[in-house]
Design goal:
By secondary structure, the protein is mainly beta. Helices cover about 0% and strands about 40% of the residues. The chain has no helices and 20 strands. The strands form six sheets. Strands 5, 6, 8, 9 and 10 form a five-stranded antiparallel sheet that branches. Strands 13, 14, 16, 17 and 18 form a five-stranded antiparallel sheet that branches. It is rod-shaped, with a radius of gyration of 30 Å.
Length: about 230
């Protein structure tokens, strides 16, 4: 302290450690959870994770790791996360990181695909997800190495007419979507597509996905039932 030529003794020194704020690297929907990951920061031995669903932020968890799986989530709800780096020894903290938001969406359930009776298309259906605005349908067939996007729809059914002229096995993956938020993957069982031919007997699938083949017999013809083998 100074007053004219009068100067006080110096105060005790105070040490402060500068700490950079972190960044949220990923924020993704899982099956009944939201997973948040962030960058490690030198000097921090603790991270305080805050969450806001409505109103103000509240402390969700104190962690030493740089990842956290939030399991207290409700489908269709928007969650916003931010993190503060902290040093428990020096009691130093960083600024808040830039907050990131996601709308949690439940994983799609009940995905089922069955060849239609026309022998020219496959019917795909699934259960609705609370809070979803639309659904994106992906498909992979036996010869492919990865899924390809087929379509986006607000319905819970889809008719796949982009099918092969030859017998082919297909699998579908459905995700719920709301703006930039996407649910976890949900894949259907493998569906065998057997396109009808005019020179073959007609067939159909019942509600339990059992295959029925209609065979016409002339009077006096004999028929022995055989067991159908997959593929």
């Amino acid at each position: 302290a100074v007053n004219g030529k009068k100067v006080s003794k110096a105060s005790k020194a105070v040490t402060v450690t500068r700490m950079n704020y972190t960044i949220i690297k990923t924020i993704t929907n899982g099956n009944g959870s939201v997973k948040v990951t962030w960058a490690k920061r030198s000097g921090a031995n603790q991270y305080k994770l805050y969450r806001k669903a409505s109103g103000s932020y509240s402390l969700l968890k104190k962690l030493t790791a740089t990842t956290y799986t939030d399991k207290k989530v409700v489908s269709g709800t928007k969650y916003t996360y931010k993190i503060v780096c902290y040093n428990t020894k020096t009691k130093t903290k960083s600024m808040d990181c830039t907050a990131r938001s996601i709308t949690y969406l439940d994983k799609v359930t009940g995905v089922f695909a069955r060849e239609n009776n026309d022998g020219k298309s496959i019917a795909v259906k699934w259960n609705a997800v609370k809070g979803a605005a639309s659904y994106t349908i992906y498909r992979i067939k036996a010869a492919d190495s990865s899924f390809t996007k087929l379509a986006t729809t607000s319905s819970t059914t889809y008719t796949d007419t982009k099918v092969s002229n030859n017998p082919t096995a297909y699998m579908y993956n459905i995700v719920a979507v709301k703006k930039s938020s996407v649910s976890a993957d949900c894949q259907s069982p493998v569906t065998a597509f057997l396109p009808k031919r005019d020179n073959l007997n007609s067939y159909y699938y019942d509600d339990n996905n059992n295959l029925h083949v209609i065979i016409k017999l002339n009077k006096g013809d004999k028929y022995a039932e055989g067991k159908a083998l997959s593929d």
